[in-house]
Design brief:
There is one protein chain. The strands form 3 sheets. A 6-stranded parallel sheet has the order 9-8-7-10-11-12, with helices on both faces. Strands 3-4-5-6 form a 4-stranded parallel sheet. A two-stranded parallel ribbon has the order 1-2. The protein starts with 9 loop residues before the first strand and ends with a helix. It is α/β, with parallel strands linked by helices. It is globular and about 65 Å long. It folds into 2 domains: 161 residues, no CATH class; 171 residues, Glycogen Phosphorylase B (Rossmann fold). It is built from 14 helices and 12 strands.
């Protein structure tokens, strides 16, 4: 979005990526100077009133919002009628879709969800125009807010990934050593290690097809996953957080990349396709849009037993040389063109 509108000031509750925002006019809220910074659960009650009291420099004619939780609630003082264009990653899942986000199952969230839903629906009604990052999210927007929206898929650095034919050549000595120490054939899983990412299903898939698993990522679920692998006798290599070149090299080296969660879109599988990985994703959710079944990858509803074998068999028949072509439609340049056509053409 910043590339689409360079020079536009960016309003944020706090800036947690200063290295990516160098040279950008980022205007943080009061929460950035308090212990609430980076503590979303505690800060949640303050999101709406903070977004409702932003101050704009000058007189913008439009506001472009990147919204996951409540950023689309934004309203600028003395400029209540400036139209807002909300690019929505999802209505807050732990409020609107707790069945796929364990945070929504806590007693506190369940008790307060009716209030947040009512408020969120009213604020969404004020937004001038809405774009969803997938058809899956588009339906959730309609179900949650009763609003029409258009689909603009998010940007993925596909050109950067496909520009390198063999990512092993970009590894430093330490990363090359990690890659060489792995088995010749393995099932790869990569994401934050949290329950809803379903890395346990990756382990079950590996056990079903008789291959070792390689798990990339860090998070609070690591101990449980390691215990599961030990209990099931699954040979699993937990690499923790890795460098970007090593991740891309792992995509290229893996027998298959398995991504089981129900995602709003699923950027990681698109990255894997861009690298030429054979990808198996959930047939439910945004990955059903981003990974074409039988062309860019394989869609599955179960990741164990005979279903795992069937998915692996079909994935092994994919042409790794043509798979990256399926990722090209999500290139950054496509996103910027679609975003500008939406905001500037309205």
């Amino acid at each position: 979005m910043i590339e689409a509108y360079p020079g536009a000031p960016v309003h944020a509750l706090w800036n947690d990526a200063p290295e990516r925002m160098r040279g950008v006019d980022v205007r943080e809220s009061w929460m950035a100077r308090t212990p609430l910074r980076d503590r979303k659960a505690l800060a949640l009650p303050f999101f709406d009133p903070t977004w409702r009291r932003r101050t704009a420099a000058g007189a913008p004619d439009k506001v472009l919002v990147s919204s996951y939780v409540f950023a689309h609630h934004v309203r600028f003082r003395r400029l209540p009628d400036v139209p807002a264009y909300a690019y929505v990653h999802s209505p807050a899942r732990y409020i609107w879709a707790p069945e796929i986000d364990e945070r929504g199952r806590s007693p506190l969230v369940r008790a307060t969800a009716p209030y947040w839903k009512s408020l969120d629906r009213r604020r969404a009604a004020e937004v001038h125009s809405i774009a969803a990052n997938s058809a899956f999210v588009q339906q959730r927007i309609m179900d949650s807010w009763g609003r029409e929206s258009r689909v603009i898929h998010p940007p993925v650095d596909t050109a950067e990934i496909t520009a390198v034919l063999d990512w092993r050549e970009r590894l430093d000595a330490a990363d090359a050593g990690i890659l060489e120490a792995l088995p010749d054939a393995f099932v790869l899983g990569a994401s934050r290690l949290v329950p809803y990412k379903r890395l346990d299903a990756v382990l079950e898939f590996a056990a079903s097809v008789g291959l070792p698993a390689v798990i990339v990522g860090a998070g609070p679920d690591r101990a449980r996953l390691e215990a599961l692998a030990a209990d099931r006798g699954i040979l699993a290599h937990f690499l923790g957080a890795v460098s970007t070149p090593l991740l891309y090299a792992l995509y290229q080296r893996a027998t298959v990349f398995v991504f089981p969660p129900v995602e709003d879109f699923g950027i990681v599988p698109v990255e894997a396709m861009a690298a030429g990985a054979r990808v198996i994703v959930n047939a439910v959710g945004g990955t059903a849009e981003s990974v074409p079944h039988g062309i860019g990858g394989v869609q599955a509803r179960r990741f164990a037993g005979e279903d795992a074998w069937a998915a692996l068999d079909r994935a092994l028949k994919l042409n790794r040389k043509t798979v990256p072509q399926q990722a090209a439609r999500f290139a950054r340049s496509e996103f910027i063109a679609n975003l500008r056509a939406w905001v500037d053409g309205d």
